[in-house]
Amino acid sequence: MSSTFFGLSVAQSGLNAQRRAMDILGHNIAHANDPTYKRQRLVLVEGAVLAQAQEATVLGSSPFGSGVNAGDVLRVRDALIERRLRTATQAASDWQYRAQTMKQIEAIFAEPSDGGLQTDLDKFWASWQKLASNPESLPIRSALLEDAAALCQRIQYIYAQLRSTADDLNSSVVDRVALINNISQEIARLNLQISAMEPNQVGTNALQDRRDALVLELSKLVAVSQHEEGNLGITISVGGRILVQGGQANLLECATVEGGKQQVRWAKDGQEVLIKGGELNGLLWLRDEALPSYLAQLDTFASILVQEVNALHRTGKTLTGSDGTDFFKAGTTAANISLDPSIVDHPELIAASATGAVGNNEIALAIAGLDSRPVRGTMTLNQLYRGLVADIGGSAAIAYRQATAHQLSLDQFTMQQQSVSGVSLDEEMTNLIKFQQAYNAAARVITVMDEMIDVLVSKTGVVGR
């Protein structure tokens, strides 16, 4: 049969368990504003079941409990929601990076506005139209050269800015790969530390929270898959190949390929990494697809402008009666388009006339008409440029819409994850009252047991004294 003091032991286990639960509750409240923290709860385990043979019945010994034990400290989480959160993070980061960069590209062109290339192009055509109205005017000819030089500078500026953006993206690939390697190595170290510790304890849970935060940060950079490996921790894969397994991280590297581009490869065997999501995916799309297309279209526009204007200008006559030469420097593209050196500071060498006769303006009218005359199939020079602007605007609009949609999805999964794993102060305060009342009740049991023992000790055996 149980001892006289057994009830005290049972009540004490209740005190210890409720105190431990209060410790965990306080830890939760301390992290109420930490989005990477997953709230914890204490598992209360029933004490060993004892039996008294002296009180055996037909069913066997009479069992009774020995109190409660404080068991594991579990993190409250939903693996499915966390997986969906990682997927949403990958997509949102991809499209947000595209949207931000497309916004910068739109700012380079500054269309529609008075500071855009279209304004300089319109002034260029208008200057030729003014010259057609007064072919012999040197001030009008000088103004034409100024407007033409401004047009060349604007085209060069846009090309240089696009080229600089492409170079910046190329450098960003190296930065992202270095960051991925750093995060991967830290996750591998955490795997080792967690596997070496006793599971489901506060210290281990803190390391797991840190590891989960790193995996989410990694998901912003590149699409990853995560698998639980028991004592080995977690395994993370990128593009179907293992990035982290246990305490081992397989590093990535950048290799310079054709065109000076940085290609992401596996350091182990040099195989190219299959990248499907995250900032790195958006970055590579911008660098390898979007920007080369915009640069090519701008080059095409500038080359056709040079060829068409020069072809007409060479058929004309200057004020000195000589044959016209190239107006723009022949063979130039968007990167280096400029006026022909022979015509710079020599407005009299502009060939506005077809015959050299006074008042003849046929060449000036023909060049001014290039703004509305098809030069490649059915498209005019203005339409070629507007097509480029429309292409950029279309890609930017898609990026904005996708970024907004995926951000909404990310926000929803973040709210779901926080509703499960985040700290609710209302819930914790409710638990605080519950644990406090349980602690007080256990303390009251001890008080009552103490009074009973006091009666037993002080009142027993006094007959005959």
In words, what does this structure look like?
This protein is of the alpha+beta class and 465 residues long. It has 2 domains: 6-76 and 422-459, no CATH class; 84-410, no CATH class. Helix content is 58%, strand content 12%. The chain has helices at 6-30, 79-109, 117-133, 138-196, 202-221, 278-313, 362-368, 381-421, 425-459, and strands spanning 40-46, 50-57, 60-64, 68-75, 225-228, 234-238, 241-245, 248-249, 252-256, 262-266. The strands form 4 sheets. Strands 5-6-7-8 form a 4-stranded antiparallel sheet, with helices on one face. It has a two-stranded antiparallel ribbon with strand order 1-4. Helix 1 runs antiparallel to helix 9 (425-459) and helix 6 (278-313) runs antiparallel to helix 8. The longest helix has 59 residues, at 138-196. The protein starts with 5 loop residues before the first helix and ends in a 6-residue tail after the last helix. The model has no long low-confidence stretch (mean pLDDT 90).
What order do the helices and strands come in, and which of them pair?
Blueprint: H1 6-30, E1 40-46, E2 50-57, E3 60-64, E4 68-75, H2 79-109, H3 117-133, H4 138-196, H5 202-221, E5 225-228, E6 234-238, E7 241-245, E8 248-249, E9 252-256, E10 262-266, H6 278-313, H7 362-368, H8 381-421, H9 425-459
Antiparallel strand pairs: 1-4, 2-3, 5-6, 6-7, 7-8, 9-10
Helix pairs in contact: 1-9, 2-5, 2-6, 2-8, 3-4, 3-7, 4-5, 4-6, 6-7, 6-8
